[in-house]
Amino acid sequence: MKALILDDIRISREGLAALLNKINPSIEIAASVATVEEAKQVFDEMSIDVAFLDIQLQSGTSFDLVDEIPFETKVVFITAYDEHAIAAIRKGAFDYLLKPINSSDLRNCIQRIQDVDAQTAETHITSSDKTEENMVHSDLIGITGLDAIIFLKIDDIVYLKADGKYTMIQTTTEHITSSKNLKVFETMLPESKFMRVHHSFLLNLKYIKKFQKEYNMLILDNGSQIPVSKSRKDLLMHRLMHV
Question: What is the dihedral of CA 69, 72, 78, 82, to 10 degrees?
Fold first, then answer.
């Protein structure tokens, strides 16, 4: 299990890392950072299983990072204030912990993550074929725009780009702004056709024209340039061989 710790206080980061190591030595602290920008860079470079995010930072809050975290990463918010709990839940947190962190609470959190991962793996094995079949037969998607619901053919979507709390959707003929974040679309669109190649981009694989290895950049049929995270490059190459 790879973990990221975001906290602008060094001693807090070190303390949490030590506590995690004591509870479960198999947890790898893949990154320990102090700012949202540093955390974004980590997500560009590697896959993270669980992100421990201190909510209140000197430069703002870690809520600013949530919409750009890959769907598969579990988010655990850390706060010294009870009133942040509701906001954390609304942001889709897997869990939240109060400072000072209680080792028992952290141990329970880690156990829940492991239980969910085990259950997810089992469910995926038994139901992935059925889910994929249902998605393939659904060729339309309803997009919640700023002032209307727009229905699009899934095959006409070229790529989607995170724009804060919104998502910009580029189709073959137009671009649309949705009030939903990118993570929502990642769960809705068929995995057989779409891939999140970067924390800010989800794209339709059929529109890829070429991949520039030197720059980790995709060139699409319409000329758009889409960056590829280092952590997703190998998976992308594998997927392109099977499109």
Answer: 100
Distance, in Å, from the CA atom of 194 to the CA atom of 212, rounded to the nearest integer, reads 19
Distance between CA atoms of residues 110 and 119, nearest Å:
14
- pTM metric for this prediction: 0.61
Short-list 12, 220, 206, 228, CA closest to 100:
12
Name every residue whose Cβ is closer than 8 Å to that of residue 4 and which is 6 or more positions away in sequence.
Answer: 30, 31, 32, 33, 39, 42, 43, 48, 50, 51, 52
Q: Choose from 53-62, 109-118, 220-229 the range with maximum mean pLDDT.
A: 220-229
pLDDT of residue 137: 40
Burial (CB count within 10 angstroms: exposed 0-12, middle 13-18, buried 19+), residue 117: middle
Q: How confident is the model at residue 243 (pLDDT cuts 50, 70, 90)?
A: low
Position with higher pLDDT, 71 vs 200: 200
CB within 8 A of 58, min separation 6: which ones?
Answer: 8
Write down the pLDDT at residue 85.
64
Report CA dihedral (184, 188, 194, 199) to the nearest 10 degrees: 10
Amino acid code (one letter) for 22: K
In whole angstroms, give the CA distance from residue 40 to residue 61: 14
Partners of residue 151 on adjacent β-strands: 142
